Amino acid sequence: MHYGDLSLFVLVVLFGVFFVAGFIDSIAGGGGLLSIPALLLAGIPPQYALGTNKFIVVFGTASALVNFIKHKKIIYKITLLSVVFSLLGAHIGTELILSLSESIATKVILFLLPLSALSIFIPHNFVKNNPKSFNSIQTFLYAPLLSLLIGVYDGFFGAGTGTFLILGFYLFLQMDMLSASASAKAINLASGLGSLVTFAFSNHIFYFLALPLIVANILGGYTGSKLAIKKGVGLIRIFIIISFVLVFISLLLKYLKSYS
User: Fold this and answer.
1) Where, by residue number, does the polypeptide cross the bilayer (predicted)?
2) How far is Cα 138 from Cα 173, in angstroms, rounded to an integer?
3) How many angstroms separate the CA atoms of 147 and 96, rounded?
4) CB of 25 closer than 8 Å to CB of 31
5) Residue spans of alpha helices (H) in 117-174
6) Which of 204, 221, 216, 162 minimizes the C-alpha distance to 54?
7) Range of the domain at 232
8) Contact, 50 vs 36, CB < 8 A?
């Protein structure tokens, strides 16, 4: 596939989608609910869509993480060990999705998209105080196991990964919203890199398409992360829901038509 296979209009739309995806992902999570189906609608085969999307969003995640590091919001006691398990889990998940045929992978994605959309409704207004200290079970069992399992999901599909990590940190480690978001970004970047390397070695990334979309995603992620984490989350969720419903219905109709 080359640039000539995609119209200028499709490329412009994808650029806009990935900017918006990076923006909302850095604040409320759920960017993959727009970017993955957008690539599929553009005619990208499912495993290539996942690999190309992963290559793009890793850079957006990294740019958002930079802001958290600058403001010293990362809890390294939790993240340092967890990133190792996240990397391993992502590799396993990516190998699983690559083992499926294109038709089965498409059906799996269409099944997982609405389920992962439920992550939009997970509350983000956590109020627990972050104790800045964790017991051995939280540090050496809960955090690594949580990172491993969600890493597998991220490698296999990925949409909503950040939100699921934030929820897990809240429930099992009693983190507040900001600390959970920052630590989730670090672990999400690790799982993204683990998955990306696996996609790259299997040649399932369209680099020609990914490079301009990386710029869009970085701009969106950096712009979103500059805002206070809680600002505008409710409005952004409404936007995600409306956009996702429209995109998902379009994608579903496209594949129903192709199978009819």
Assistant:
1) 7-28, 48-66, 78-98, 104-127, 139-172, 205-223, 235-256
2) 6
3) 17
4) yes
5) 136-137, 143-156, 161-173
6) 204
7) 3-259
8) yes
pLDDT at 13: 92
Angle at alpha carbon of residue 236, lines to 188 and 24, rounded to 5°: 30
Neighbouring residues of 106: CB distance < 8 A, sequence distance ≥ 6: 40, 46, 255
CA distance 177 to 129: 9
For residue 15, give both structure tokens: 């650029």
Identify residue 66 by its one-letter amino acid code: V
Give mean pLDDT in consecutive 10-residue pieces for the chain, a chain of 260 residues: 70 92 73 88 93 89 80 84 96 96 90 82 60 80 95 91 84 81 88 95 94 89 64 61 76 73
Q: What total number of domains does the chain contain? A: 1
Are the C-beta atoms of residues 241 and 84 closer than 8 Å to each other? Answer: no
